[in-house]
Amino acid sequence: MVRASNKIYIFVLKLAVSGASLFLIFRKADIEHVAYILKNIGLSSFLAVAAVYIASQLVSAVRWRTLLMDRFPFGKLFALYMIGAFFSTFLPGLIGGDALRAYYLNKDARKMSATLASVFMDRYVGFVSLMAIGIAAFPFSLRSFAGSPYTWLMPVIFVSFVVASILFFTLQLGKRFRFMTEIYEYFSLLRDRKTTLASAIGLSVIIQLMNFLMVIILAWRMNLPVSLLQLAVFLPIVITISSLPISISGIGVREGAFVILLGLINIGPEAATSLSLSWFFSIVIGSLPGLAFYVFHDRERKSISS
Question: What is the pLDDT of residues 242-268, one digit of tens each?
Fold first, then answer.
């Protein structure tokens, strides 16, 4: 009961952060103008971006399969990825998509610890590629920041990520517990499989480029002067900030980051907010097939158990 009440409390706090962030944004941005821009983007553009998102989930499933020690059917992993995407989007803060993936896969896996470790590593290598892209593009995008107080935000995020990674993998916190020992054993085995890690990082780069493509399509549809090089720095910052567990699916926080960063290249708050929301709405559309996968998977599991 205590844990349930804590979850509700945390959810309410996240909801408050998202609500307060949106309130502050729409004090600067005309909400009617934002609605007008979103309406004129057109359904075809939303569907095109949603299709790219689903394709990125396909590649993500390939990456996850690469990182798993046991062999699983690709179709199963893709279905679990889509189920996780659906629950993360439509029940944010209540059911974690990654936790759901680990839970369902553990039905067929040998160890829960190895399953959780693979899910963690799947996300981790995604952030490795994201940080690499962001810091590589940073020196070529200094003009976009024009001496603003946010100039060194990308390097700070990169250094923080590197330091946190070193501490996590070298100190091996919690190793005295058997469960955590098994997780670190998985990391040790994976460290020796350099080809596997290289493949996973390469796939992660492709996934991140798909994320950039989604935003580029929407920016092009809105006639916004945003270059791929600028997005290569801006999006890692936006994704990192909106991934922090302080809001509902990053709503409000992500839009605020877009308004601040795109404002550096003279894009108004209405256009920046519209670009952020259209990206999120496209992901929502792309996550909808996850419901069908969940219903089918649930029925299949019940029929097997009966």
Answer: 988 888 888 999 999 999 999 999 999
Inter-axis angle of helices 269-287 and 74-90, nearest 10: 130
Give, as one character, the DSSP assignment of residue 306. -
CA 259/CA 272 separation, integer angstroms: 5
CA distances from residue 106 to 3, 174, 207 in whole angstroms, order as listed: 23, 22, 25
Interhelix angle 269-287/43-67, nearest 10 degrees: 60
Cβ atoms of residues 96 and 119 within 8 Å: no
290: closest CA among 106, 61, 87?
87
The backbone region for 174, taken as left when phi is positive above 0, alpha when psi lies in -120 to 50, beta otherwise, is: left
- pLDDT of 141 strictly over 90: no
Do 251 and 22 form a contact (C-beta atoms < 8 A)?
Answer: yes
Widest CA span in the chain = 65
Judge whether 158 and 109 are in contact, CB under 8 Å. no
pLDDT digits (tens, 9 = 90+) for 17-61: 999 999 999 999 999 999 999 999 999 999 999 999 999 999 999
Place of tokens 């946190």: 164
Say whether 172 sits in a helix, a strand or coil: coil
Helix pair angle (112-137, 43-67), 10° resolution: 120
Residue in the structure block whose two tokens are 């981790």: 124
